Amino acid sequence: MVQGPHPAPPRSPVRPARPVADGLPRPVESPADAPRHVGPEKVTGAQSIVRSLEEAGVEVVFGIPGGAILPTYDPLMDSTKVRHILVRHEQGGGHAAAGYAYATGKVGVTMATSGPGATNLVTAIADANMDSVPMVAITGQVGASMIGTDAFQEADIVGITLPVTKHNYLVTDPDDIPRTIAEAFHIASTGRPGPVLVDIAKSAMQAQTTFSWPQDIALPGYHPVTKPHAKQIREAARLIATARRPVLYVGGGVVRSGASDLLRRLTDASGAPVVTTLMARGALPDSHPQHLGMPGMHGTVAAVAALQKADLVVALGARFDDRVTGLLSSFAPLATVVHADIDPAEIGKNKRVDVPIVGDLREVIGDLLPELEREHGQHGKPDLEAWWQQLDAWRETFPLGFDEPSDGHLAPQHVISRIGEISGPESIYVAGVGQHQMWAAQFIKYERPGAWINSGGLGTMGFSVPAAMGAKVGDPARTVWAIDGDGCFQMTNQELATCTINEIPIKVAVINNSSLGMVRQWQTLFYESRYSNTDLNTGHGTARVPDFVKLADAYGAVGLRCETKADVDATIKRAMEIDDRPVVVDFTVSRDAMVWPMVAAGVSNDAIQYARGISPAWDRED
Question: What is the pTM (predicted TM-score) of this model?
Answer without folding.
Answer: 0.93
